[in-house]
Amino acid sequence: MSDTGDRQQSRPGDQVSERWARWRIAVDLEEYFTRWHRLDQSGHSPHGEADLVASFGPSSVLDAGCGMGRVAIELRRRGIDVVGTDLDDDLLDYARRADPSIEWVCADLAALRLDRRFDVVVMAGNVMVFCRPADRSAIVANLAGHLPAGGLLVAGFDLERD
Fold first, then answer.
1. SS in 3 state form for the chain?
2. 4 Cβ partners below 8 Å, 6+ apart?
3. Rounded to the nearest 10 degrees, how much is the dihedral formed by the CA atoms of 111, 123, 158, 35?
4. Is 24 exposed, middle or buried (CB count within 10 Å of its CB: 0-12, 13-18, 19+)?
5. Which of 76, 86, 101, 122 is the most exposed place for a label (fewest CB within 10 A)?
C-alpha cells in the first residue's frame, strides 16, 4: 500500500494512454533508436526540434517526454544545460546509455516536481498526443510551473479530428 489510501502503488509507466500502449506494442525500440542515427548518417538532420529550441538562446531546457533523449542529447552537445524526463523507463534506458552525463528523470509529466526552473520546456514530437486526454491540462499547467516569468513552453503535436 502507498500513502494514497486503498489504491495499490503503481510504477511510473503503469498509467499510460491507450495510444501509447498500442505504440509500444507495435514499435521495435532498438529499430526506433537506430532510425535517428541512420537519418543523421545519411545527411538528413534529425535535429529540427533542437534547432528550434536552440534558436531561442536558452541556457537551460527541460525536455519533457524526452523518450530516448534525442533532443536533450543534441541540446547538451550544443552546450545547453538540459534535464530529460519521461514516463517510460525503457526509453530512458536508451537515453541513459547514450549520454549518462544528463539527468534523466522517470516521472509523470502531470506530477513532475523538480526543484528548479528552466528557460524553455520542450515537448518535442507528439508528446501530448501520447498523453492521456484527461491529463493534458494538468501537464501543461505543471510544466508551466517549471518556467520563470518570460520562459517558453514549446510543444509539437498533430491535430486530430476528435
1. CCCCCCCCCCCCCCCCCHHHHHHHHHCCHHHHHHHHHHHHHCCCCCCHHHHHHHCCCCCEEEEECCCCCHHHHHHHHCCCEEEEEECCHHHHHHHHHHCCCCEEEECCCCCCCCCCCCCEEEECCCHHHHCCHHHHHHHHHHHHCCCCCCCEEEECCCCCCC
2. none
3. -120
4. middle
5. 101
What is the reported pLDDT for 152? 97
pLDDT at 161: 67
**Each residue's pLDDT tens digit, 65-108:** 998 899 999 999 999 999 999 988 888 999 999 999 999 999 99
Tell the residue number behind the cell numbers 533508436, with chain if given.
33
- pTM recorded for the entire structure: 0.79
